[in-house]
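sorry to bug you again but im stuck and you know this stuff better than me. what follows is a protein written twice so to speak, once as letters and once as C-alpha cells for the fold. mainly i need to know what kind of three dimensional shape the backbone takes. anything you notice is useful, everything is just below:
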Amino acid sequence: MAGAVAMSLSLLVVPIAHSAPSTEVQVEISFLLGYIEGSGCEFYRNGSWYNSKAAQAHLREKYKYMAARNLISTTENFIDGAATESSLTGQPYAVKCNGFKAISSNKWLHDELARLRNY
C-alpha cells in the first residue's frame, strides 16, 4: 500500500510531456527554413550579419533543440522561441533583403507564415 501511495505521489511531480510537433507544424517549419535559405537575405544575429544559408542552419539547430525537448506545439512557438532573438544574449534577430531596411525576423517570418496559410 505504501508503495502504491509513493508511486501515485511521484506521478504528481513528473512534468506533463508536451506532444511532438504535429505533421502540419513540421511542414510549416520546414517550409519556413527553406524560405529562409532560399531568400538570399541577410540575417542579423548577435552583432553580425549572416547569409541565408548560415541563418537557416542556425535556426534548424535551434528547431532540433526545441523539438527534442517537446517545446514546439505550433509554428508560432518556433518563430517566437527560436527565430526572434538570441537565446544567449536576448538580442533580437533582424532580416535585410534586397537592400531594403532591416525588419525583425519575428515580423518577417510571421508574415510569410500568414502568406503560406492563405495560399
